Amino acid sequence: MSLLRLDRLHYCILMSMGCISSPLVWAEDLTQDVTVLPTLHVEATRTDTTYLQTPASVFRIDAPQVDTSSQVNLTEVVKGVPSLQIRNRENYAQDLQLSMRGFGARSTFGVRGIRLYVDGIPATMPDGQGQTSNIDLSSLDHVEVLTGPFSSLYGNSSGGTILTSTKEGQGKDSIELSYSGGSHDKSRAGLVLQGGAKGANEPSYVISSSYFDTDGYREHSGAEKVLNNAKLSWNLDDGSKINWVTNYVKIHADDPQGLTHDQWNANPKQQVPFLKQFNVRKDIEQTQTGVTWAKPINDKNELYAMAYLGNRQVTQYQSIPKGEVKLEEGKPIYSGQASPKHAGGVIDFERNYYGADFRWTGKELLPNTTLSIGVALDIMDEERKGFENFNVNNVYGVKGNLRRDEDNTLWNIDPYLQASWQFLPTWRLDTGVRYSNVHYKSKDHFTSGPDQYGTVNGDDSGKTNYDKVLPSAALSWQILPELMAYVSYAKGFETPTFTEMAYRPDGESGFNFDLTASTSDTYETGLKSQNQLGDFTLAVFQTKTKDDIVSAGNSNGRSTFRNADKTLREGAEFAWNKKLWRDLTATASYTYLDATFDADIPALGSIAQIPAGNAIPGIAKNQAYASLAWQPSHGLYGGVDVQYMDKVYVNDTNSDAAPSYSVTSANVGYAWVMGDWKVNSFARVDNLFDKNYAGSVIVNDSTQPVGRYFEPADGRNWSAGLRVIKQF
Question: Fewest beta carbons within 10 Å, which of 254, 390, 445, 554?
Answer without folding.
Answer: 445
